[in-house]
Amino acid sequence: MSNKDPIIKRRQSTRINVGHVPIGDGAPIAVQSMTNTRTTDVEATVAQIKALERVGVDIVRVSVPTMDAAEAFKLIKQQAKVPLIADIHFDYRIALKVAEYGVDCLRINPGNIGNEGRIRSVVDCARDRNIPIRIGVNSGSLEKDIQEKYGEPTPQAIVESALRHVEILDRLNFDQFKVSVKASDVFTAVEAYRILAKQIKQPLHLGITEAGGARSGAVKSAIGLGLLLSEGIGDTLRVSLAADPTEEVKVGFDILKSLRIRSRGINFIACPTCSRQEFDVIGTVNELERRLEDIITPMDVSIIGCVVNGPGEALASTLGVAGGHNKSGFYEDGVRHDRLDNDKMIEQLEERIRAKAALLANR
Ligand code: SF4
C-alpha cells in the first residue's frame, strides 16, 4: 500500500440520492454549504449558489421560512445546477410546496410538523416524489422535556431527540433519510454521532454547528469532523462558518483532502519558511491558491523554500519546487527538470500547474 492510499474504512450505511448526488453506502463524501442571502432575493441567492458551484459544492441548503420564500425557491431551483435542500421548520405546507417545485431534499424534523395527518402528508409526498428527508437535530433547540430530563444538551440527549424523529419515519415505513446531530461543542457533537452511528443504518450528515469565524471555525470543524471521519463516520458534511459560504466548501474539501478521503484540486505542501528560504514561499503559496481555485484535478504541489526539504518533498509530489539561489529546482512526478526563476516563480509555476492539470484531466 502506498502511503497515499485511503486508510479509512467507512461505516456501512444505506444510500439515499439528493438529486443526482448519492449519499451513503460508500458514495464520495458530499460537501455541502448553505446560502445566507434572503431567499426571497432570488438574484442574490442564485449568485451565491453559482459562487458555491464554482468552488465545487455538491449540495446547497436554502432556508425556506415563508410561503413567499417557497415561491422564490421555485425560481432559484430552475437556475441551480447542484441539488438543493430546503430547510423548513414547522410549516408542513411549505414542505409540500417546495416538493411541488422540485426540491431535492427536505430538511424537516417530522416531530415538529404537528399532528399525525400533517406528518403523513409530508412523508407521503416525499415518498411519491422520491425526495429524501434530512432530520437535523441541534444541541441548541432540543425539546423541552428532553432538556428537563438531561439538564443540558448531552450527547445522549441529542441522540434521544434524533431517534424520536427517526421513529416517526420508521413507523411510516420511510427509510430515505439522513440524520445530523450537531452541537457547537466538539466533544458533544463527536460523541452524539458515535452513539447514533451504532443505532441507525442511514447516512449521517456531519457538522459542528455555529463553529465560529473563518479561522476558529475551520479549526473546530477540522477537529470534530476529522475525528469522526477518521473513524469512518460521516457521509456528507458542512463546515459551518460565520464567513462567506464558499469558505465552508474550501475548508470541507481541505478536511477530506487531509484525510485522503476525497481529493479535489491542488493539495499544496509548503514549508513554514525560515531564514534559509530562497524565494517568498508564503506569498507564492497564497497567490497560487487564489489563482488556481478553478482547478479541480487532484494533484500534490510542493513549494519548499530551500534544498533542506525541497527535493525530498518534490520527489513525492506531482509537481514540486525546491528553493535555490536565484533559480529553484523544478520537479515533475519526482523527476528533476529545469529551474524556475525565483523572481518569476508565481507566473512560471501557475503555467506549469495548469498545463499538468490539463494533461491529467485528459488522461
Ligand atoms: Fe527553512 Fe528550508 Fe525548512 Fe523551508 S525547507 S523551513 S526554507 S529550512
TrEMBL record:
Transmembrane segments: none annotated. Its cofactor is [4Fe-4S] cluster. Its EC number is 1.17.7.3. [4Fe-4S] cluster binds at C271, C274, C306, E313. The keyword Metal-binding applies. Residues 14-252 form the IspG TIM-barrel domain. Binds 1 [4Fe-4S] cluster. Converts 2C-methyl-D-erythritol 2,4-cyclodiphosphate (ME-2,4cPP) into 1-hydroxy-2-methyl-2-(E)-butenyl 4-diphosphate. Belongs to the IspG family. This is 4-hydroxy-3-methylbut-2-en-1-yl diphosphate synthase (flavodoxin). The gene is ispG.
